[in-house]
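Retro notes
What went well: the complex prediction finally ran end to end.
Inputs used:
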Amino acid sequence: METYEFVLPSLWMGLGVVILLFAIFYYVGYRSAKITTTAEDFYAAGYSIGPVANGLAMAATWASLATFMGVIALIYALKAPFVYLWIQWALSIPLLTLLYGACLRRMKAFTPASFIKVRYGNEAAIISIIWMCLAMVMYALGQMIGLGMAFEVLFGIDYNYALIIVGIATVGFITMGGMYGASYNAAFQMVVMTLAIVLPMGAIMKTMGSSGWWFPPLAYGDMVPQMLNVIPDFFDMKYDYRWYFALIPAFTMGPIALPHLAMRIFTSSSVKSARWSVVWFILFLGLLFSGTYTAGFAGNYFTATEGMQIKPPDMTIFALNVFYNPAIVAAFVIGGAVAAGLSTIGGNLMAISGLIGSDFLGIIRPKMETKKKMTYGYAALGIGGIAAILLAFSPPAFLVTSILWAFGLLATAVAPGILLGVWWKQTNKAAMMISSVVCGAIYIIISPHVLPNISHGGQSLVAKLGMSGAMVTVPLAYASLVILSMLFNKMGISAVDMDTKKMIDRIHGWGSEYDERRYNGSVMPAAVVVICVIIFIWGLQPW
Amino acid sequence: MKEKLYKKELFLTVLFFIVLLVFGHFAQLFVLFPGLQGGSMWGFPVHYIVPIVMGWFGLLIVTIIMAVVLNKFDDDMEALADTFEGKGSNKNK
Protein backbone atom coordinates (compact mmCIF):
# COMPACT_ATOMS: atom_id res chain seq x y z
CA MET A 1 0.00 0.00 0.00
CA GLU A 2 1.15 3.53 -0.79
CA THR A 3 2.21 5.64 2.21
CA TYR A 4 1.13 9.18 2.91
CA GLU A 5 3.76 11.03 4.92
CA PHE A 6 2.77 14.07 6.91
CA VAL A 7 4.48 17.33 5.89
CA LEU A 8 3.46 20.69 7.33
CA PRO A 9 2.49 22.90 4.37
CA SER A 10 3.36 26.22 6.04
CA LEU A 11 6.07 26.21 8.70
CA TRP A 12 5.57 29.88 9.58
CA MET A 13 1.83 29.54 9.98
CA GLY A 14 2.32 26.63 12.39
CA LEU A 15 4.97 28.52 14.34
CA GLY A 16 2.77 31.62 14.40
CA VAL A 17 -0.13 29.74 16.01
CA VAL A 18 2.17 28.13 18.60
CA ILE A 19 3.86 31.46 19.48
CA LEU A 20 0.49 33.19 19.81
CA LEU A 21 -0.75 30.45 22.16
CA PHE A 22 2.38 30.66 24.31
CA ALA A 23 1.97 34.46 24.50
CA ILE A 24 -1.55 33.94 25.88
CA PHE A 25 -0.34 31.29 28.36
CA TYR A 26 2.38 33.65 29.63
CA TYR A 27 -0.09 36.51 29.97
CA VAL A 28 -2.44 34.32 32.04
CA GLY A 29 0.56 33.10 34.09
CA TYR A 30 1.68 36.71 34.72
CA ARG A 31 -1.81 37.83 35.80
CA SER A 32 -2.12 34.77 38.02
CA ALA A 33 1.24 35.41 39.68
CA LYS A 34 -0.05 38.82 40.77
CA ILE A 35 -2.95 37.34 42.74
CA THR A 36 -0.97 34.45 44.26
CA THR A 37 -0.04 35.55 47.78
CA THR A 38 -0.63 32.52 50.04
CA ALA A 39 0.03 28.75 49.99
CA GLU A 40 -3.74 28.28 49.46
CA ASP A 41 -3.50 30.47 46.34
CA PHE A 42 -0.44 28.65 45.06
CA TYR A 43 -1.60 25.05 45.60
CA ALA A 44 -5.41 25.36 45.40
CA ALA A 45 -6.07 28.64 43.55
CA GLY A 46 -7.46 30.03 46.82
CA TYR A 47 -10.25 27.40 46.71
CA SER A 48 -12.01 29.77 44.33
CA ILE A 49 -12.47 28.20 40.88
CA GLY A 50 -16.11 28.11 39.73
CA PRO A 51 -17.81 25.06 38.20
CA VAL A 52 -17.55 25.92 34.48
CA ALA A 53 -13.87 26.99 34.54
CA ASN A 54 -13.04 24.05 36.79
CA GLY A 55 -14.94 21.60 34.56
CA LEU A 56 -12.97 22.86 31.56
CA ALA A 57 -9.69 22.70 33.52
CA MET A 58 -10.49 19.15 34.73
CA ALA A 59 -11.10 17.98 31.17
CA ALA A 60 -7.93 19.69 29.89
CA THR A 61 -5.78 18.25 32.68
CA TRP A 62 -7.09 14.76 31.95
CA ALA A 63 -6.94 14.95 28.15
CA SER A 64 -3.25 14.76 27.28
CA LEU A 65 -1.24 14.95 24.08
CA ALA A 66 -2.35 11.33 23.53
CA THR A 67 -5.81 12.66 22.64
CA PHE A 68 -4.34 14.12 19.45
CA MET A 69 -1.63 11.57 18.74
CA GLY A 70 -1.52 8.25 20.61
CA VAL A 71 -5.23 7.46 20.78
CA ILE A 72 -5.85 7.98 17.11
CA ALA A 73 -2.86 5.78 16.27
CA LEU A 74 -4.13 3.09 18.64
CA ILE A 75 -7.63 3.20 17.17
CA TYR A 76 -5.79 2.75 13.88
CA ALA A 77 -4.20 -0.43 15.30
CA LEU A 78 -6.83 -1.88 17.69
CA LYS A 79 -9.99 -0.35 16.20
CA ALA A 80 -13.24 -0.32 18.24
CA PRO A 81 -11.98 -2.08 21.45
CA PHE A 82 -9.58 0.81 22.01
CA VAL A 83 -12.53 3.19 21.84
CA TYR A 84 -14.14 1.20 24.69
CA LEU A 85 -10.91 1.48 26.67
CA TRP A 86 -10.92 5.24 26.19
CA ILE A 87 -14.61 5.84 27.02
CA GLN A 88 -14.17 4.73 30.63
CA TRP A 89 -11.57 7.45 31.37
CA ALA A 90 -14.54 9.76 31.83
CA LEU A 91 -15.26 7.93 35.11
CA SER A 92 -12.05 9.18 36.72
CA ILE A 93 -13.16 12.50 38.22
CA PRO A 94 -16.81 11.54 38.95
CA LEU A 95 -15.61 8.50 40.94
CA LEU A 96 -12.84 10.49 42.60
CA THR A 97 -15.35 13.15 43.69
CA LEU A 98 -17.91 10.59 44.88
CA LEU A 99 -15.52 8.32 46.76
CA TYR A 100 -13.19 10.80 48.45
CA GLY A 101 -12.84 14.13 46.63
CA ALA A 102 -15.67 15.83 48.50
CA CYS A 103 -14.35 14.53 51.85
CA LEU A 104 -10.83 15.77 51.19
CA ARG A 105 -12.13 19.10 49.90
CA ARG A 106 -13.86 19.52 53.28
CA MET A 107 -10.52 19.09 55.07
CA LYS A 108 -8.94 21.58 52.60
CA ALA A 109 -6.24 19.15 51.49
CA PHE A 110 -3.77 20.29 48.82
CA THR A 111 -3.11 16.72 47.53
CA PRO A 112 -4.29 13.19 48.43
CA ALA A 113 -1.00 12.80 50.35
CA SER A 114 -2.14 15.58 52.72
CA PHE A 115 -4.98 13.24 53.75
CA ILE A 116 -2.72 10.19 54.01
CA LYS A 117 -0.40 12.14 56.30
CA VAL A 118 -3.24 13.03 58.68
CA ARG A 119 -4.90 9.60 58.40
CA TYR A 120 -1.88 7.29 58.67
CA GLY A 121 1.11 9.44 59.63
CA ASN A 122 4.34 10.65 58.07
CA GLU A 123 5.90 7.30 57.06
CA ALA A 124 2.80 6.23 55.13
CA ALA A 125 2.60 9.67 53.51
CA ILE A 126 6.20 9.39 52.30
CA ILE A 127 5.45 6.00 50.68
CA SER A 128 2.42 7.47 48.89
CA ILE A 129 4.37 10.58 47.85
CA ILE A 130 7.01 8.34 46.25
CA TRP A 131 4.41 6.32 44.30
CA MET A 132 2.52 9.41 43.18
CA CYS A 133 5.69 11.31 42.22
CA LEU A 134 6.83 8.30 40.16
CA ALA A 135 3.53 8.33 38.27
CA MET A 136 3.66 12.13 37.83
CA VAL A 137 7.25 12.03 36.52
CA MET A 138 6.31 9.25 34.06
CA TYR A 139 3.29 11.28 33.01
CA ALA A 140 5.14 14.61 32.61
CA LEU A 141 8.07 12.89 30.92
CA GLY A 142 5.74 11.23 28.40
CA GLN A 143 4.16 14.61 27.59
CA MET A 144 7.56 16.31 27.34
CA ILE A 145 8.92 13.62 25.00
CA GLY A 146 5.69 13.80 22.96
CA LEU A 147 5.94 17.59 22.63
CA GLY A 148 9.62 17.36 21.65
CA MET A 149 8.85 14.72 19.02
CA ALA A 150 5.83 16.64 17.75
CA PHE A 151 7.92 19.81 17.33
CA GLU A 152 10.64 17.75 15.63
CA VAL A 153 8.21 16.27 13.10
CA LEU A 154 6.07 19.36 12.66
CA PHE A 155 8.76 22.01 12.36
CA GLY A 156 11.76 19.93 11.33
CA ILE A 157 13.81 20.99 14.38
CA ASP A 158 16.28 18.55 15.94
CA TYR A 159 14.62 16.68 18.86
CA ASN A 160 17.10 17.98 21.47
CA TYR A 161 16.65 21.62 20.43
CA ALA A 162 12.88 21.15 20.21
CA LEU A 163 12.89 19.74 23.72
CA ILE A 164 14.90 22.65 25.15
CA ILE A 165 12.73 25.29 23.46
CA VAL A 166 9.33 23.79 24.22
CA GLY A 167 10.41 22.50 27.65
CA ILE A 168 11.72 25.78 29.00
CA ALA A 169 8.88 27.77 27.48
CA THR A 170 6.40 25.41 29.15
CA VAL A 171 8.00 25.25 32.59
CA GLY A 172 8.30 29.05 32.54
CA PHE A 173 4.61 29.91 32.33
CA ILE A 174 3.50 27.07 34.61
CA THR A 175 5.97 28.04 37.34
CA MET A 176 4.96 31.67 37.03
CA GLY A 177 1.24 31.13 37.46
CA GLY A 178 0.90 28.47 40.19
CA MET A 179 -2.52 26.84 40.51
CA TYR A 180 -4.41 29.98 39.41
CA GLY A 181 -2.40 30.02 36.18
CA ALA A 182 -2.64 26.24 35.73
CA SER A 183 -6.43 26.40 36.19
CA TYR A 184 -7.27 29.34 33.93
CA ASN A 185 -4.74 28.31 31.30
CA ALA A 186 -6.13 24.76 31.34
CA ALA A 187 -9.68 26.08 30.89
CA PHE A 188 -8.55 28.10 27.86
CA GLN A 189 -6.50 25.17 26.54
CA MET A 190 -9.59 22.92 26.68
CA VAL A 191 -11.51 25.35 24.48
CA VAL A 192 -8.63 25.39 21.97
CA MET A 193 -8.32 21.57 22.02
CA THR A 194 -12.03 20.99 21.47
CA LEU A 195 -12.32 23.49 18.64
CA ALA A 196 -9.15 22.08 17.05
CA ILE A 197 -10.56 18.56 16.97
CA VAL A 198 -14.25 19.05 16.29
CA LEU A 199 -14.48 21.89 13.74
CA PRO A 200 -11.78 20.68 11.28
CA MET A 201 -13.26 17.16 11.49
CA GLY A 202 -16.56 18.59 10.24
CA ALA A 203 -14.81 19.95 7.14
CA ILE A 204 -12.95 16.66 6.62
CA MET A 205 -16.16 14.65 6.88
CA LYS A 206 -17.89 16.95 4.40
CA THR A 207 -15.09 16.38 1.88
CA MET A 208 -15.23 12.65 2.56
CA GLY A 209 -18.89 12.79 1.59
CA SER A 210 -20.60 12.41 4.97
CA SER A 211 -23.92 14.17 5.46
CA GLY A 212 -23.21 14.29 9.20
CA TRP A 213 -20.46 16.95 8.92
CA TRP A 214 -22.59 19.35 11.01
CA PHE A 215 -21.94 17.26 14.16
CA PRO A 216 -18.68 15.30 13.74
CA PRO A 217 -18.67 13.56 17.15
CA LEU A 218 -21.75 11.41 16.53
CA ALA A 219 -23.07 11.90 12.99
CA TYR A 220 -20.72 9.89 10.78
CA GLY A 221 -22.99 6.84 10.67
CA ASP A 222 -23.53 7.19 6.91
CA MET A 223 -19.82 6.36 6.40
CA VAL A 224 -20.21 3.01 8.18
CA PRO A 225 -21.35 0.81 5.21
CA GLN A 226 -18.36 1.88 3.11
CA MET A 227 -16.06 1.39 6.10
CA LEU A 228 -17.37 -2.17 6.58
CA ASN A 229 -16.77 -2.89 2.91
CA VAL A 230 -13.09 -2.10 3.24
CA ILE A 231 -12.40 -2.88 6.93
CA PRO A 232 -15.00 -5.52 7.90
CA ASP A 233 -13.58 -6.04 11.43
CA PHE A 234 -13.52 -2.35 12.49
CA PHE A 235 -16.42 -2.73 14.96
CA ASP A 236 -15.63 -6.28 16.14
CA MET A 237 -15.52 -6.88 19.89
CA LYS A 238 -12.55 -9.13 19.39
CA TYR A 239 -11.50 -9.93 22.98
CA ASP A 240 -13.07 -12.14 25.65
CA TYR A 241 -15.03 -10.69 28.58
CA ARG A 242 -12.05 -10.65 30.93
CA TRP A 243 -10.26 -8.13 28.68
CA TYR A 244 -13.14 -5.67 29.09
CA PHE A 245 -13.50 -6.36 32.82
CA ALA A 246 -9.77 -5.80 33.41
CA LEU A 247 -10.29 -2.19 32.36
CA ILE A 248 -11.93 -1.60 35.77
CA PRO A 249 -9.06 -2.53 38.13
CA ALA A 250 -6.36 -1.28 35.76
CA PHE A 251 -7.77 1.91 34.31
CA THR A 252 -10.86 2.94 36.25
CA MET A 253 -9.56 2.45 39.80
CA GLY A 254 -6.08 3.85 39.06
CA PRO A 255 -6.81 7.42 37.97
CA ILE A 256 -8.80 7.82 41.21
CA ALA A 257 -5.41 8.21 42.90
CA LEU A 258 -3.92 10.62 40.36
CA PRO A 259 -2.97 13.68 42.42
CA HIS A 260 -3.29 16.17 39.56
CA LEU A 261 -6.92 15.14 39.04
CA ALA A 262 -7.70 15.22 42.76
CA MET A 263 -6.20 18.71 43.00
CA ARG A 264 -8.78 19.93 40.49
CA ILE A 265 -11.51 18.99 42.98
CA PHE A 266 -9.63 20.76 45.78
CA THR A 267 -9.50 24.05 43.83
CA SER A 268 -13.32 24.23 43.77
CA SER A 269 -14.99 27.09 45.57
CA SER A 270 -17.06 24.60 47.63
CA VAL A 271 -17.95 20.91 47.85
CA LYS A 272 -21.20 21.60 46.03
CA SER A 273 -19.40 23.55 43.32
CA ALA A 274 -16.99 20.60 42.90
CA ARG A 275 -19.94 18.31 42.10
CA TRP A 276 -21.22 20.74 39.44
CA SER A 277 -17.69 20.97 38.03
CA VAL A 278 -17.92 17.22 37.42
CA VAL A 279 -21.04 17.74 35.29
CA TRP A 280 -19.24 20.30 33.09
CA PHE A 281 -16.21 17.99 32.98
CA ILE A 282 -18.30 15.17 31.50
CA LEU A 283 -19.93 17.49 28.96
CA PHE A 284 -16.62 18.94 27.69
CA LEU A 285 -14.61 15.72 27.89
CA GLY A 286 -17.33 13.76 26.07
CA LEU A 287 -17.27 16.28 23.22
CA LEU A 288 -13.48 16.11 22.93
CA PHE A 289 -13.25 12.32 23.23
CA SER A 290 -16.05 11.72 20.73
CA GLY A 291 -14.22 14.00 18.31
CA THR A 292 -11.11 11.87 18.85
CA TYR A 293 -13.03 8.67 18.01
CA THR A 294 -14.27 10.37 14.85
CA ALA A 295 -10.67 11.23 13.91
CA GLY A 296 -9.64 7.59 14.51
CA PHE A 297 -12.54 6.39 12.37
CA ALA A 298 -11.71 8.93 9.64
CA GLY A 299 -8.03 7.85 9.66
CA ASN A 300 -9.03 4.22 9.03
CA TYR A 301 -11.61 5.36 6.45
CA PHE A 302 -8.98 7.47 4.67
CA THR A 303 -6.57 4.52 4.45
CA ALA A 304 -9.31 2.19 3.23
CA THR A 305 -10.80 4.50 0.62
CA GLU A 306 -7.73 6.41 -0.61
CA GLY A 307 -5.47 3.36 -0.46
CA MET A 308 -2.78 5.26 1.45
CA GLN A 309 -1.29 4.40 4.86
CA ILE A 310 -0.62 7.46 7.04
CA LYS A 311 2.99 7.54 8.31
CA PRO A 312 3.61 7.81 11.17
CA PRO A 313 0.15 6.81 12.52
CA ASP A 314 0.64 9.25 15.45
CA MET A 315 0.32 12.06 12.92
CA THR A 316 -3.07 10.89 11.60
CA ILE A 317 -5.09 13.93 12.66
CA PHE A 318 -2.48 16.35 11.27
CA ALA A 319 -2.15 14.36 8.03
CA LEU A 320 -5.93 14.36 7.52
CA ASN A 321 -6.04 18.12 8.04
CA VAL A 322 -3.18 18.75 5.63
CA PHE A 323 -4.84 16.50 3.04
CA TYR A 324 -8.36 17.91 3.29
CA ASN A 325 -8.16 21.38 4.90
CA PRO A 326 -6.35 24.69 4.23
CA ALA A 327 -2.91 25.20 5.80
CA ILE A 328 -4.22 27.59 8.48
CA VAL A 329 -6.59 24.89 9.77
CA ALA A 330 -3.75 22.36 10.00
CA ALA A 331 -1.74 24.97 11.94
CA PHE A 332 -4.65 25.47 14.36
CA VAL A 333 -4.88 21.70 14.95
CA ILE A 334 -1.17 21.73 15.85
CA GLY A 335 -2.02 24.48 18.36
CA GLY A 336 -4.70 22.19 19.82
CA ALA A 337 -2.20 19.35 20.25
CA VAL A 338 0.29 21.68 21.95
CA ALA A 339 -2.46 22.90 24.29
CA ALA A 340 -3.33 19.28 25.14
CA GLY A 341 0.26 18.46 26.11
CA LEU A 342 0.77 21.66 28.09
CA SER A 343 -2.44 21.38 30.12
CA THR A 344 -1.43 17.93 31.33
CA ILE A 345 2.17 18.92 32.08
CA GLY A 346 0.76 21.88 34.05
CA GLY A 347 -1.31 19.51 36.19
CA ASN A 348 1.59 17.06 36.63
CA LEU A 349 4.02 19.77 37.73
CA MET A 350 1.51 21.33 40.12
CA ALA A 351 1.02 17.86 41.65
CA ILE A 352 4.78 17.33 42.04
CA SER A 353 5.01 20.79 43.57
CA GLY A 354 2.20 20.02 46.04
CA LEU A 355 3.59 16.60 46.94
CA ILE A 356 7.16 17.84 47.49
CA GLY A 357 6.75 21.53 48.37
CA SER A 358 3.81 21.09 50.73
CA ASP A 359 3.42 17.44 51.81
CA PHE A 360 7.02 16.23 51.95
CA LEU A 361 8.50 19.46 53.34
CA GLY A 362 5.58 19.59 55.77
CA ILE A 363 6.82 16.25 57.11
CA ILE A 364 10.52 17.04 57.39
CA ARG A 365 10.06 20.75 58.31
CA PRO A 366 6.65 20.89 59.99
CA LYS A 367 7.19 24.35 61.47
CA MET A 368 8.09 26.05 58.21
CA GLU A 369 6.25 29.35 57.74
CA THR A 370 3.66 29.62 54.98
CA LYS A 371 5.59 32.17 52.93
CA LYS A 372 8.63 29.91 52.86
CA LYS A 373 6.44 26.91 52.03
CA MET A 374 5.18 28.74 48.96
CA THR A 375 8.73 29.63 47.89
CA TYR A 376 9.65 25.96 48.11
CA GLY A 377 6.51 25.14 46.13
CA TYR A 378 7.69 27.40 43.30
CA ALA A 379 11.14 25.80 43.50
CA ALA A 380 9.69 22.25 43.44
CA LEU A 381 7.56 23.17 40.42
CA GLY A 382 10.50 24.59 38.48
CA ILE A 383 12.87 21.76 39.46
CA GLY A 384 10.22 19.13 38.58
CA GLY A 385 9.88 20.69 35.12
CA ILE A 386 13.64 20.95 34.55
CA ALA A 387 14.02 17.31 35.70
CA ALA A 388 11.38 16.22 33.17
CA ILE A 389 13.26 18.09 30.39
CA LEU A 390 16.62 16.56 31.39
CA LEU A 391 15.16 13.05 31.61
CA ALA A 392 13.55 13.50 28.20
CA PHE A 393 16.98 13.90 26.52
CA SER A 394 17.83 10.29 27.20
CA PRO A 395 14.82 8.79 28.93
CA PRO A 396 15.38 5.70 31.11
CA ALA A 397 13.55 2.80 29.46
CA PHE A 398 11.50 2.09 32.59
CA LEU A 399 10.16 5.64 32.78
CA VAL A 400 8.93 5.73 29.19
CA THR A 401 6.69 2.74 29.81
CA SER A 402 3.16 3.65 28.84
CA ILE A 403 1.54 5.90 31.42
CA LEU A 404 -1.43 3.54 31.19
CA TRP A 405 0.73 1.01 33.02
CA ALA A 406 1.34 3.50 35.84
CA PHE A 407 -2.43 3.78 36.42
CA GLY A 408 -2.43 0.12 37.51
CA LEU A 409 0.42 0.91 39.88
CA LEU A 410 -1.56 3.71 41.52
CA ALA A 411 -4.67 1.51 41.64
CA THR A 412 -2.57 -1.03 43.55
CA ALA A 413 -0.29 1.05 45.77
CA VAL A 414 -2.20 4.26 46.53
CA ALA A 415 -5.96 4.05 45.86
CA PRO A 416 -6.77 1.33 48.48
CA GLY A 417 -5.17 3.36 51.28
CA ILE A 418 -7.14 6.46 50.33
CA LEU A 419 -10.52 4.80 49.76
CA LEU A 420 -10.48 2.45 52.75
CA GLY A 421 -8.93 5.24 54.83
CA VAL A 422 -11.92 7.46 54.10
CA TRP A 423 -14.62 4.78 54.43
CA TRP A 424 -13.40 2.38 57.13
CA LYS A 425 -12.09 3.53 60.51
CA GLN A 426 -10.33 0.22 61.15
CA THR A 427 -7.90 0.73 58.24
CA ASN A 428 -4.56 0.38 59.94
CA LYS A 429 -1.40 2.38 59.30
CA ALA A 430 1.02 -0.60 59.33
CA ALA A 431 -1.36 -2.60 57.11
CA MET A 432 -1.59 0.28 54.67
CA MET A 433 2.19 0.60 54.43
CA ILE A 434 2.79 -3.15 53.99
CA SER A 435 -0.02 -3.54 51.46
CA SER A 436 1.16 -0.52 49.46
CA VAL A 437 4.85 -1.50 49.32
CA VAL A 438 4.38 -5.26 48.83
CA CYS A 439 1.52 -5.14 46.30
CA GLY A 440 3.14 -2.22 44.45
CA ALA A 441 6.37 -4.22 44.21
CA ILE A 442 4.50 -7.32 43.00
CA TYR A 443 2.80 -5.22 40.32
CA ILE A 444 6.20 -4.02 39.08
CA ILE A 445 7.75 -7.50 39.27
CA ILE A 446 5.00 -9.27 37.31
CA SER A 447 4.97 -6.59 34.61
CA PRO A 448 7.05 -7.16 31.45
CA HIS A 449 8.91 -3.85 31.89
CA VAL A 450 11.36 -4.78 34.67
CA LEU A 451 11.68 -8.57 34.79
CA PRO A 452 10.36 -9.77 31.43
CA ASN A 453 10.92 -13.44 32.28
CA ILE A 454 8.35 -13.53 35.06
CA SER A 455 5.75 -11.32 33.46
CA HIS A 456 2.12 -12.29 34.08
CA GLY A 457 0.68 -12.21 30.58
CA GLY A 458 4.02 -12.58 28.81
CA GLN A 459 4.84 -9.82 26.34
CA SER A 460 1.23 -9.30 25.29
CA LEU A 461 -0.42 -5.88 25.09
CA VAL A 462 -2.52 -6.61 28.20
CA ALA A 463 0.72 -7.17 30.15
CA LYS A 464 2.44 -4.08 28.75
CA LEU A 465 -0.55 -1.89 29.58
CA GLY A 466 -0.74 -3.38 33.09
CA MET A 467 -4.17 -4.98 32.64
CA SER A 468 -3.09 -8.54 33.49
CA GLY A 469 -0.99 -7.34 36.42
CA ALA A 470 -3.69 -5.08 37.87
CA MET A 471 -6.24 -7.93 37.74
CA VAL A 472 -4.01 -9.66 40.30
CA THR A 473 -2.50 -6.90 42.43
CA VAL A 474 -5.44 -4.49 42.76
CA PRO A 475 -7.74 -7.07 44.42
CA LEU A 476 -4.74 -8.34 46.40
CA ALA A 477 -4.05 -4.82 47.69
CA TYR A 478 -7.64 -4.22 48.89
CA ALA A 479 -8.03 -7.68 50.41
CA SER A 480 -4.64 -7.62 52.16
CA LEU A 481 -5.31 -4.13 53.53
CA VAL A 482 -8.60 -5.27 55.08
CA ILE A 483 -7.25 -8.56 56.45
CA LEU A 484 -4.00 -7.09 57.80
CA SER A 485 -5.89 -4.18 59.37
CA MET A 486 -8.15 -6.58 61.27
CA LEU A 487 -5.15 -8.64 62.34
CA PHE A 488 -2.97 -5.71 63.42
CA ASN A 489 -5.80 -3.97 65.27
CA LYS A 490 -6.43 -7.19 67.19
CA MET A 491 -2.72 -7.45 68.01
CA GLY A 492 -2.61 -3.78 69.02
CA ILE A 493 -0.12 -2.83 66.30
CA SER A 494 -0.45 0.84 65.31
CA ALA A 495 -4.13 0.83 66.24
CA VAL A 496 -6.21 3.75 64.97
CA ASP A 497 -6.43 6.56 67.55
CA MET A 498 -9.52 8.53 68.54
CA ASP A 499 -8.38 11.78 66.84
CA THR A 500 -8.09 9.96 63.51
CA LYS A 501 -11.51 8.38 63.93
CA LYS A 502 -13.03 11.78 64.71
CA MET A 503 -11.34 13.22 61.66
CA ILE A 504 -13.05 10.57 59.49
CA ASP A 505 -16.48 11.60 60.79
CA ARG A 506 -15.58 15.26 60.28
CA ILE A 507 -14.57 14.96 56.63
CA HIS A 508 -17.85 13.21 55.90
CA GLY A 509 -19.63 16.35 57.09
CA TRP A 510 -20.62 15.37 60.65
CA GLY A 511 -18.74 18.24 62.26
CA SER A 512 -17.78 17.48 65.85
CA GLU A 513 -20.66 15.00 66.26
CA TYR A 514 -18.90 11.66 66.69
CA ASP A 515 -20.29 8.14 66.60
CA GLU A 516 -17.99 5.13 67.04
CA ARG A 517 -20.24 2.87 64.94
CA ARG A 518 -20.05 5.04 61.81
CA TYR A 519 -17.69 3.80 59.02
CA ASN A 520 -16.74 1.04 61.41
CA GLY A 521 -18.84 -1.94 60.32
CA SER A 522 -17.74 -5.34 59.11
CA VAL A 523 -20.13 -5.88 56.18
CA MET A 524 -18.35 -3.54 53.73
CA PRO A 525 -14.82 -4.85 54.40
CA ALA A 526 -16.06 -8.46 54.27
CA ALA A 527 -17.77 -7.81 50.93
CA VAL A 528 -14.60 -6.15 49.63
CA VAL A 529 -12.53 -9.22 50.59
CA VAL A 530 -14.96 -11.69 48.98
CA ILE A 531 -15.20 -9.72 45.71
CA CYS A 532 -11.42 -9.21 45.62
CA VAL A 533 -10.63 -12.91 46.18
CA ILE A 534 -12.87 -13.84 43.24
CA ILE A 535 -11.25 -11.24 40.95
CA PHE A 536 -7.78 -12.25 42.17
CA ILE A 537 -8.31 -15.93 41.27
CA TRP A 538 -9.80 -14.93 37.90
CA GLY A 539 -6.83 -12.64 37.25
CA LEU A 540 -4.34 -15.41 38.00
CA GLN A 541 -5.65 -17.53 35.11
CA PRO A 542 -3.34 -17.51 32.06
CA TRP A 543 -4.00 -14.72 29.55
CA MET B 1 -32.22 10.97 62.14
CA LYS B 2 -28.42 10.54 62.42
CA GLU B 3 -28.67 6.83 61.70
CA LYS B 4 -30.99 7.48 58.76
CA LEU B 5 -28.61 10.03 57.24
CA TYR B 6 -25.62 7.73 57.74
CA LYS B 7 -27.39 4.85 55.99
CA LYS B 8 -28.49 7.21 53.23
CA GLU B 9 -24.89 8.33 52.67
CA LEU B 10 -23.68 4.73 52.33
CA PHE B 11 -26.61 3.81 50.10
CA LEU B 12 -26.13 6.80 47.77
CA THR B 13 -22.37 6.21 47.51
CA VAL B 14 -22.74 2.52 46.64
CA LEU B 15 -25.62 3.26 44.25
CA PHE B 16 -23.79 6.00 42.33
CA PHE B 17 -20.58 3.94 42.29
CA ILE B 18 -22.40 1.06 40.57
CA VAL B 19 -24.37 3.30 38.21
CA LEU B 20 -21.22 5.19 37.17
CA LEU B 21 -19.38 1.91 36.51
CA VAL B 22 -22.25 0.58 34.40
CA PHE B 23 -22.49 3.74 32.27
CA GLY B 24 -18.72 4.05 31.82
CA HIS B 25 -18.34 0.37 30.90
CA PHE B 26 -21.48 -0.11 28.81
CA ALA B 27 -19.53 -2.06 26.18
CA GLN B 28 -19.23 -4.93 28.69
CA LEU B 29 -22.98 -5.56 28.45
CA PHE B 30 -22.60 -6.28 24.74
CA VAL B 31 -19.82 -8.79 25.44
CA LEU B 32 -21.73 -10.43 28.30
CA PHE B 33 -24.92 -10.62 26.23
CA PRO B 34 -23.84 -11.01 22.58
CA GLY B 35 -27.51 -11.19 21.58
CA LEU B 36 -27.69 -7.43 22.12
CA GLN B 37 -25.28 -6.91 19.21
CA GLY B 38 -26.59 -6.81 15.68
CA GLY B 39 -28.86 -3.79 15.65
CA SER B 40 -27.96 -0.35 14.39
CA MET B 41 -28.50 3.19 15.65
CA TRP B 42 -27.83 6.40 13.69
CA GLY B 43 -26.13 4.20 11.10
CA PHE B 44 -23.67 2.63 13.58
CA PRO B 45 -23.67 -0.89 15.05
CA VAL B 46 -25.39 -0.51 18.46
CA HIS B 47 -22.46 -2.09 20.32
CA TYR B 48 -20.25 0.76 19.07
CA ILE B 49 -22.43 3.84 19.41
CA VAL B 50 -24.38 2.99 22.59
CA PRO B 51 -21.23 2.76 24.81
CA ILE B 52 -20.05 6.11 23.37
CA VAL B 53 -23.41 7.79 24.00
CA MET B 54 -23.74 6.26 27.48
CA GLY B 55 -20.16 7.29 28.30
CA TRP B 56 -21.04 10.87 27.40
CA PHE B 57 -24.71 11.83 27.70
CA GLY B 58 -25.53 8.90 29.97
CA LEU B 59 -22.78 9.91 32.39
CA LEU B 60 -23.83 13.55 32.02
CA ILE B 61 -27.34 12.72 33.25
CA VAL B 62 -25.95 10.55 36.07
CA THR B 63 -23.59 13.31 37.25
CA ILE B 64 -26.38 15.90 37.17
CA ILE B 65 -28.54 13.62 39.33
CA MET B 66 -25.50 12.97 41.53
CA ALA B 67 -24.86 16.69 42.02
CA VAL B 68 -28.50 17.44 42.86
CA VAL B 69 -28.98 14.46 45.19
CA LEU B 70 -25.65 14.69 47.02
CA ASN B 71 -25.84 18.49 47.39
CA LYS B 72 -29.32 18.07 48.87
CA PHE B 73 -27.87 15.39 51.15
CA ASP B 74 -25.17 17.86 52.25
CA ASP B 75 -27.90 20.38 53.14
CA ASP B 76 -29.53 17.78 55.36
CA MET B 77 -26.17 16.98 56.96
CA GLU B 78 -25.47 20.67 57.56
CA ALA B 79 -28.88 21.16 59.12
CA LEU B 80 -28.26 18.21 61.43
CA ALA B 81 -24.75 19.32 62.31
CA ASP B 82 -26.09 22.82 63.06
CA THR B 83 -28.42 21.36 65.66
CA PHE B 84 -25.32 20.03 67.47
CA GLU B 85 -23.00 22.97 67.03
CA GLY B 86 -25.10 26.06 66.57
CA LYS B 87 -26.25 27.50 63.27
CA GLY B 88 -23.73 28.14 60.51
CA SER B 89 -20.89 26.26 62.13
CA ASN B 90 -20.61 23.44 59.57
CA LYS B 91 -20.85 25.01 56.17
CA ASN B 92 -19.39 22.85 53.45
CA LYS B 93 -16.95 25.48 52.30
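What we learned: Residues 2-85 of chain B form one domain.
What to try next: split runs per interface for comparison.
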